Amino acid sequence: MNRFWRWSLQWGQPAMLYQRLLRLQPWVATLAIIFLLVGGYTAFWLAPADYQQGEVFRILYVHVPAAWLSMMVYGAMVGLALLVFIWQVTIAGWAMKTFAWLGAGYTLIALVTGAIWGQPTWGTWWVWDARLTSELVLLFIYLGIVLIFDVLADARAAARMAAILTLVGSVNLPIIHYSVIWWHTLHQPPSIRGLETSMHWSMLYPLLLMALAFLLVFVWQVVWHLRCRVLMEARHTPWLAKRLRSLNQSGENG
Prior knowledge:
The chain is mostly helical and 254 residues long. The chain has one domain. The chain is 79% helix and 2% strand. The protein has a two-stranded antiparallel ribbon. It is globular, with a radius of gyration of 21 Å. The model has no long low-confidence stretch (mean pLDDT 87).
């Protein structure tokens, strides 16, 4: 526990956080690009067509990773909300806003690709299906959190209000996850449940590769946004001024 707190305090210092994000960014970016290329090639070229839906099923390789990520991001935000609400960790509030923006984007991707997929398979772009409706509610919660940060001038008050909304809105996560099990809906049941799956391996491994690629892209985006936020918040601090002077000196010497 003491080691955890020391680690948390180190990452909670803007100077330390910036240095670590700076070192992390190129590695995450490289891995994200590699897995996007490999995952995209296996999903859209190597994976066989579905015997019922044909080629249109390939939108699954974008829709499902985006939908998974929309819930995973919110789950991570619940942890950040606890850090803000209980321990008042400032950087957790910064991360919450970044996560909310990105989570809203992935939720929108999931809804749009789901509508595109639904048109040829269900014969309609949208139905008030339990899964679709609860995912739409998730998008509104994300946008509400972003709006709190944009409207409230006091950063601490905004983070606290956003944390409360995040914790209250977390009741929607199990509804999204279990909606296709609890209610009979048009949306198909999950193809992957724990270690069990109804998908053939030739279709499953491209999906897992694309899910990992989406996750790495998300981490890349978080690292980039947090670096920019740290620079913006720390623009008047001594450590940043010292770093800028050292960069200027190295540039002049070079």
